[in-house]
């Protein structure tokens, strides 16, 4: 058996067509370099040949990413330990020895290898989540991408309606809804809806579950509305764009609904679903995202502080001489940081102590987002404790514990 933990250390600088590789053979104490084509066949042949070359020993690979085709392919080999390197860390390490900011792929691979050889104890090896957690994380992240795309289309519709048909922003309803899409398809201009029969408009709104008094008010507004202008060029171009954007919103709504079904099924099969659904305000969207953030491996975090640090909720302290400042942590998974931030914001309306805590923070002069991040930090401690002990959250029990400790928060919550 080898005296070394790894038979070979690898620095891999990935590319679209080929990957530059720097290798350090621990047994022979030899440095070599290679180029691997970016094809599944070439990558598989390379990693298997490398393992045979070192007698079946384990292989450590430093790579400047935590997701992607190469990363995912290498993570499937049990004998490979991946060390994902933050791109900013890799760039700064490289610039320490190349202050001219020159960049070359073989040099980058050698720099990653040097970082792995000399500072491996300070790097965090990649430990894959179980299949159910990875499925949840990918589904929820992709769903969020679709929601962001829909938001962009809605913003385009809003901006264009303001130029020629601002009344529609009030009459159509929320622009992501089927009602708004139906409204804009049927009456894309003020002239079109003013020519429509009142009975048709009334039936449209009734079909979308509006009260008679509300409908009467809209009909009165439609009768007296005045257009911004009478320029047919502007109007025709706007109608064309609105039609295209509405079609995109409809398609994205259908895709998001499909994702919601997939996420619901995946979350129902997750072993910790009952824990995360117990938190006030988590709901159908945030509970699966929280489960994806924690995973099922109870040894992956050293404590609640480790969770808050990894996901960017814990602040960064910068101290120099007599000056000390606190900053938001940027080097983190942005989607998961957003998950905890969004959950803390939602919890204010669902948890009595969270609402009281938020008000305390604002009373101390903290801004809205700073108060939300502080609340998120507090929630992470509770989430971690419940996750670690495999016990659902109990609001009444937590309030009792606050009162027992004599916390001012218990009085404020009461």
Low-confidence stretches: none
Query: Main sheet: which strands, in order across?
Result: 3-2-1-4-5
Distance between the termini: 64 Å
Oligomeric state of the chains present here: single chain
SS content category: alpha/beta
Give the strand tally: 7
Net shape = globular
Number of domains: 3
Question: Proportion of β residues?
Answer: 5-15%
How big is the Rg? 28 Å
Q: Helices and strands, in N-to-C order? A: EEEHEHEHHHHHHHHHHHHEEHHHHH
Give the rounded overall mean pLDDT. Answer: 90
Number of helices: 19
**Main sheet record:** 5 strands, mixed
| Percent helix range | 55-70%
Describe this structure in words.
This protein has helices at 40-53, 69-75, 87-97, 105-119, 131-164, 168-171, 178-186, 190-195, 198-207, 212-224, 232-268, 273-277, 283-294, 304-310, 334-347, 352-363, 368-389, 395-404, 408-413; strands at 8-13, 18-25, 30-37, 59-63, 80-84, 316-320, 323-327. It has 414 residues and is an alpha/beta fold. It has three domains: 8-122, Nucleotidyltransferase, domain 5; 133-267; 273-413, no CATH class. The chain has a five-stranded mixed β-sheet with strand order 3-2-1-4-5. A two-stranded antiparallel ribbon has the order 6-7. Helix 7 (178-186) runs antiparallel to helix 11 (232-268), helix 9 packs across helix 10 and helix 13 (283-294) crosses helix 15. The longest helix is centred in the middle third of the chain and has 37 residues, at 232-268.
């Amino acid at each position: 058996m080898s005296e070394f933990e790894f038979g070979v250390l690898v620095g891999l600088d990935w590319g679209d067509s080929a990957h530059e590789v720097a290798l350090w053979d621990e047994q022979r104490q030899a440095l070599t370099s290679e180029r691997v084509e970016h094809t599944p066949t070439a990558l598989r042949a390379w990693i298997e040949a490398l393992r045979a070359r070192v007698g079946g020993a384990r292989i450590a690979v430093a790579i400047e990413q935590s997701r992607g085709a190469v990363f995912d392919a290498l993570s499937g080999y049990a004998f490979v330990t991946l060390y994902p390197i933050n791109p900013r860390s890799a760039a700064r390490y490289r610039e320490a020895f190349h202050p001219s900011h020159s960049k070359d792929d073989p040099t980058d691979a050698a720099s990653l290898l040097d970082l792995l050889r000399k500072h491996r104890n300070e790097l965090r090896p990649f430990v894959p989540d179980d299949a159910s957690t990875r499925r949840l994380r990918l589904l929820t992240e992709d769903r969020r991408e679709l929601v962001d795309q829909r938001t962009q289309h809605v913003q385009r519709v809003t901006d264009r309606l303001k130029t020629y048909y601002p009344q529609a922003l009030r009459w159509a309803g929320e622009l992501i809804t089927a009602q708004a899409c139906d409204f804009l398809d049927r009456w894309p201009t003020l002239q079109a809806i003013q020519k429509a029969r009142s009975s048709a408009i009334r039936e449209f709104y009734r079909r979308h579950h509006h009260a008679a008094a509300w409908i009467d008010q809209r009909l009165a507004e439609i009768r007296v509305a005045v257009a911004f202008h009478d320029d047919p060029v502007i109007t025709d171009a706007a109608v064309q764009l609105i039609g295209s954007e509405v079609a995109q919103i409809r398609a994205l709504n259908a895709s998001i609904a499909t994702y919601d079904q997939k996420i619901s099924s995946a979350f129902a099969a997750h072993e910790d679903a009952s824990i995360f659904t117990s938190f006030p305000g988590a709901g159908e969207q945030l509970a699966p995202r929280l489960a994806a953030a924690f995973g099922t491996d109870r040894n992956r975090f050293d404590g609640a502080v480790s969770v808050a640090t990894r996901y960017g909720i814990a602040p960064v302290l910068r101290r120099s001489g007599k000056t000390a400042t606190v900053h938001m942590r940027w080097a983190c998974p942005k989607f998961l940081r957003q998950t905890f931030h969004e959950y803390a914001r939602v919890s204010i309306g669902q948890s009595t102590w969270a609402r009281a805590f938020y008000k305390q923070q604002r009373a101390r002069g903290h801004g809205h987002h700073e108060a939300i991040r502080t609340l998120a930090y507090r929630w992470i401690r509770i989430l971690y404790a419940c996750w670690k002990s495999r016990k659902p959250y109990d609001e009444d029990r937590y309030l009792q514990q606050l009162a027992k400790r004599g916390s001012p928060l218990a009085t404020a919550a009461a």
